[in-house]
Design goal:
This protein is an alpha+beta fold. It has a domain at about 30-190: Immunoglobulin-like. About 30% of the residues lie in helices and about 30% in strands. The protein has helices at about 5-30, 45-55, 210-250; strands at about 30-35, 40, 70, 75-85, 95-105, 110-120, 125-130, 135, 145-150, 155-165, 175-180, 190. Strands 1, 3, 6, 7, 8, 10, 11 and 12 form an 8-stranded mixed sheet that branches. The chain has a 4-stranded antiparallel sheet with strand order 2-9-5-4, with no helix packed on it.
């Protein structure tokens, strides 16, 4: 029987370890796809380019004033605004998400796109939107980008929002921020629009306590009063008949 030599055995185990590591890493990096209906907004590229060319919106050393983020390279998130909207049932969980950010780049212009993901309390990440391609112009504040997302098929939970900025030409990650490093994106009380709706609730209450006893006594009093009235009426009729017969006898009239 042929046995593996020590170098061959070592290579075999290295291959197994490498396969397991890359396999598990790939699965850990995979995101669930839960794309949501989303509306995008941004200024026209021509407007932003003209504004950046004049230099009226440039900011010196803006990187030092950038919002907290996990990673940045030649591009970074300068600022972000987030608003939770639409809580129809008033339970404190919202079904519409509005996010607007302004990102800057070291280059005169850089085409990018953004990936939006929600991370549940169980750590599972769901990609909810991948944006169209837009262009960053240096440190212009006019190249902001916003999305308004209506949430569907999403369980009620406190979520973290993660936004990744990706180079549209190379596919490389340029910047990333999430609820792990930015409080604005943490503990977002969200639910889908199906759960966030008015519902008519009919409640039937039954009580065997004091209210039930008083109600029973009231009904009993009504019954006794009506019975008494009925007896009084019968007595009045009998007395009338007797009086009639007595009057007829006195007048010499007999009844057969």
């Amino acid at each position: 029987m042929k046995t593996l030599s020590s170098p061959s055995l070592l290579q075999y185990w290295l291959f197994i370890v490498f396969f397991c590591f890359t396999g598990f890493s790939a699965r850990a990096d995979d995101e669930l796809q839960a794309l949501q209906p989303t509306k995008e907004q941004h200024l026209a590229a021509s407007v932003v380019a003209a504004s950046a060319k004049t230099g009226t919106t440039a900011q010196a050393n803006s990187r030092s004033m950038a919002t907290s983020q996990a990673y940045q390279s030649t591009a970074w998130f300068q600022s972000i605004d987030l608003t939770l909207k639409r809580d129809l049932n008033g339970n404190g969980f919202y079904s519409q998400l509005y996010v607007r950010f302004d990102a800057h780049t070291d280059y005169a212009s850089q085409p990018v796109y953004a990936i939006y993901s929600l991370i549940g309390s169980n750590g599972v990440s769901r990609r909810i939107h991948t944006s169209s391609i837009f262009t960053l112009y240096g440190q212009s504040s006019q190249d902001w980008f916003s999305v308004e997302t209506n949430l569907v098929s999403l369980g009620r939970d406190y979520y973290k929002l993660k936004i990744q900025l990706v180079d549209a030409q190379s596919g490389y990650l340029l910047a990333e921020m999430s609820g792990y490093d930015n409080a604005t994106l943490d503990r977002l009380a969200l639910e889908d629009q199906h759960s966030d709706s008015y519902s008519q609730v009919i409640i039937h209450e039954e009580s065997g306590g004091s209210f039930g006893i008083f109600a029973l006594l009231g009904l009993s009093c009504v019954y006794l009063w009506r019975r008494k009235q009925h007896v009084v009426q019968n007595c009045d009729v009998t007395q009338c008949l007797a009086a009639g017969q007595s009057a007829a006898g006195n007048n010499g009239i007999s009844a057969y």
